[in-house]
Structures are given as C-alpha cells and as structure tokens.
Amino acid sequence: MPRRRFSEVVKDYEVGVEPATSIAEKMLTSGGFTGRHFAEAVDITAAMWRDPRCFKILSFPADIISTGLRGVIRQLTRDGHADMLVTTCGMLDHDVARSFAPYMKGDFRLDDKELLKAGYHRLGNVLVPRDSYGPLLEGKLQPLLEELYSEGRREIGASELAWALGERLLNEDSILYWAAKRKVPVVIPGLTDGAVGSQVWLFTQRHRDFKIDVLKDEEIMSDSVFESKKMGALMLGGGISKHHTIWWAQFRSGLDYAVYLTTAMEFDGSLSGALVREAISWGKVKAKARETTVHGDVTVLLPFLVSAALGKLKD
Fold first, then answer.
1. Is 284 a residue of the active site?
2. pTM of the model
3. Coil, strand or helix: which one is 58?
4. I want to staple 24 with a disulfide (CB 3.0 to 4.6 A). Which of 30, 42, 175, 210 is the partner?
C-alpha cells in the first residue's frame, strides 16, 4: 500500500446541555472508534436527505416495530425521508397489531414458561399479549382480504397489500397509513414469513384463485433502480431487508450513500455482519460512495442519528 500522510489531529471535547447535532460535530473530530463512525453517519444521512436527485431507501427488520422506535420509522416515512421501505413481514404484523392493542414493557429475564401460561409472547424485553397478536390479526385481515376479493382482486403484490392495510384499516399512528398516503412502496421480499403472510395463506385455502405476486415488488425496485439518478440507503440491521436493498443497487453500479447500523460482527462471514465496504467488491455500493458502518443497537443509535441529521438540515 502507498504511504499515507495523516494530518487530522485527534481532539478532545466536552459536552453540556446541547443538541445532538452539536455533539455529533464534536465526535467527528475525536478520531476515536464508534463515536467517529456515528458522526460520519450523521453527515452522510443529512447529505443523502438533502440531495434532491437521491432516491432514499430505509431498510429495517420487524422487531423494532414492537418498540417505541416505531414512531421514528413512522416519522421518517411521513416526513419524506424515505422513498421506499424494505422490511420483513413482521413489520406488518406489529404495525397492525399495535394500531389496535397495546404491547407491554417486560424484561429479558422473565420466565418464558410462566409467560406462556399467562398468555404473553416475549419479544426481548417487550411483552405481546397473545390476544393482541394472532387472533387480532386474523380478525382484521380476513375481512380485508374478503373485501379485496369481492372487488375482483385475484392477485396482489406485497406492497399493494401493505398500502391496502394502511388505507383501509389504520390511522395516523401507523407506518403503513403514511406509506399509503405518501405512496411510499413497502417492499417485503419474505411476505410468508410472518402472521400477515400466514393469514394470506389461510385465505387462499377458501379462495384458491387468490394469489400473491412476489414479482410485483421486484418490478417496483427495478423501476426505482433504473429511474433514479442517485440512490442511498439507511440500513437498520441486516438480514433479507439489508440484502434486498444492496442486491438491487448493484444493477445501477451501487449505492451513492450508504449508512449501516448493526450489532452483528463480520467474523462469521454473515451478510448481517458484513461492513458496507464489503459490498463495494460486489458492485452493490460504489467505490466512491459516502458510506460507513456503525456498530450498536439501533434502538439507541437511531433517535440520536435522526435528531442530529435533522439539525444539520435545519442549519
């Protein structure tokens, strides 16, 4: 490797009662560890949101929608900071369920055998009352699907189903409501891996001519990829939602902006643990892209990232 000259000095900083944007600016000069990567993520996110030519993808797993972070995802969808959501079926499950019934604070150390007897599912330290999940979703989904069927629908894409849920069932508290209202596609490459997908399967047992067209969302992604002048992604966690985002980006020579928040490590070769820069070798992120990976829990990082990036936009 060629010899490099390193001229930026590591600077100490102190903090007071101040905005997240100000603290992120100080972290950028610290030179150190995850703090600096977080500050870089703030800069890249703000630049991506500010770029009028950039098509912005927000990818995330379902579990965070069981927490209050659902509100931040709703905010980004509502306020125009996401042109597309790429997620998993459980996002639909939790967004619909929480629109009609509460989830409860729990603890990682609770006795799961006792919770089973008491009628709770445990999702980390969140408790999902059994009646607030499967039975509720069946009660809401089956009439909706019957309504669509009676209107002559025999085939539907995952994003179309997500919009139908938002338009016909939900209100302003829901992510899906705002996705439908703002016409933000909700791409779900693994629709059958969740309660909503299971309800669709159950519906097809009575209506064998009703189908999910798994390629409709792929057409949406294809159109977005080939029509956009630039493309950026804020990727929360790994798995299928992250991979589907970068997979499609390779067909336009990669993402121009890429921010990845993850708790996974790269030593096992997993996609979830892979740093953004690994995707450069696949053509999924451009070599000259503005990119960074930040290691940490998204329920901690994302609120501060969004707050600081919004502060930069305001400035």
1. yes
2. 0.95
3. strand
4. 42
DSSP state of 253: T
What CA–CA distances, in Å, run from 273 to 5, 112, 242, 261?
Answer: 30, 29, 11, 10
* Strand ranges for 69-153 from DSSP E: 84-86, 104-105, 120-123, 126-129
Q: What is the DSSP letter of 173?
A: T
- Which among 22, 44, 25 has a CA at the least distance from the CA of 293? 44
DSSP 292: E
- In the chain, the N- to C-terminal Cα span, in Å, equals 39
230 Cβ contact list (under 8 Å, min separation 6): 51, 53, 54, 55, 256, 257
How large is the greatest C-alpha to C-alpha distance in the chain, in angstroms?
A: 70
**Mode of pairing for the β-strands spanning 186-187 and 230-236:** unpaired
Output the tens digit of pLDDT for each of the chain's 315 residues: 456 678 889 999 999 999 999 999 999 999 889 999 999 999 999 999 999 999 999 999 999 999 999 999 999 999 999 999 999 999 999 999 999 999 999 999 999 999 999 999 999 999 999 999 999 999 999 999 999 999 999 999 999 999 999 999 999 999 999 999 999 999 999 999 999 999 999 999 999 999 999 999 999 999 999 999 999 999 999 999 999 999 999 999 999 999 999 999 999 999 999 999 999 999 999 999 999 999 999 999 999 999 999 999 987
Choose the catalytic residue: 140, 284, 286, 312.
284
